[in-house]
Specification:
By secondary structure, the protein is of the alpha/beta class. The protein has eight helices and twelve strands. Strands 5-4-3-2-1-10-11-12 form an eight-stranded mixed beta sheet, with helices on both faces. A four-stranded antiparallel beta sheet has the order 6-7-9-8, covered by helices on one side. The chain binds magnesium ion (MG).
């Protein structure tokens, strides 16, 4: 891989993290360890990142987790994550902890999610190059392939359709507008993972607006890593998934050395 120079402050923080007894590495997937691609189904983790995560997961006191807005099913498929990887899907609504998948929607919430999907599909139908992704706790309008004008009009139509449903949570990401019947956040997902793993410190990395909820629950012993541009509550920043892979490699090297 190409050599990416990492900031000296970040390297120090990574080395500090490498030495904690119990470590949780929790990562967003799309745009963080996998480059963003047009078709969500084609997204794959960078081999260097996947390799570093495998090495980390094999070390004592080290757990790896993926925290994504994707449904758990989609996250499992594209991430090809090892069985011992903890998974948080749909921004915290779905979790897979040590093999067991869990979804916590009530029958009423499922019904609302179905009705919401129908309303959004109708609203999106007249527009080219936009599509509705069905998610366990709601639906998302994707506009990555649309022109700016179509994106704007489609989002307005979707928002109007969603207004008929009271109490929805709206999440805006890069070229995606999501409506959910549950208000879980990635911050709650990370807190849950911290509890389950009993970790002394957490590394969380993410590239999108919804990752900010997770950055905000991090404390002084943790490391928040923002990928790319945009305002952030994270203490550190890198440019791209390649740089995240470098951070993970460094962390794996250091932690392996301390354990040998
Ligand atoms: Mg992302």
């Amino acid at each position: 891989m190409s050599v990416v120079d990492l900031d000296a402050g970040l390297l120090q923080a990574v080395d500090r993290l490498a030495a904690v007894p119990s470590l949780l590495i929790a990562l967003d997937f799309d745009g963080t360890i996998s480059p963003v691609v047009d078709s969500p189904e084609a997204a794959r983790a960078l081999p260097e990142a996947a390799d570093a995560l495998r090495r980390l997961a094999a070390l004592p006191g080290t757990r790896v987790a993926l925290v994504s807005g994707r449904s758990l099913e989609s996250l499992e498929r594209v991430s090809d994550a090892a069985a011992d990887t903890l998974l948080v899907g749909s921004h915290g609504v779905e979790v897979r902890l040590d093999g067991a998948a869990e979804l916590t929607l009530t029958p009423e919430e499922r019904q609302r999610a179905d009705e919401l999907r129908e309303a959004l599909e109708q609203a999106a139908d007249p527009f080219d190059d936009v599509w509705v992704e069905v998610k366990p706790a709601g639906s998302a309008l994707h506009t990555r392939r649309a022109t700016d004008d179509v994106r704007e009009r489609a989002e307005r139509a979707a928002s109007a359709a969603a207004e008929r449903f009271a109490g929805l949570t709206t999440r805006r990401g890069k070229n995606v507008l999501e409506f959910a019947v549950r208000s879980e956040t990635k911050g709650q997902g990370v807190e849950r993972l911290r509890e389950v793993t009993g970790a002394d410190a957490v590394l969380f990395a993410g590239d999108d607006v919804t990752d900010e909820d997770a950055f905000r629950v991090l404390g002084e012993t943790d490391l928040g890593l923002k990928v790319g541009e945009g305002d952030t509550a994270a203490a550190y920043r890198v440019d791209d998934p390649q740089s995240v892979a470098r951070v993970l490699e460094r962390l794996a090297d250091r932690r392996a050395a301390l354990n040998s």
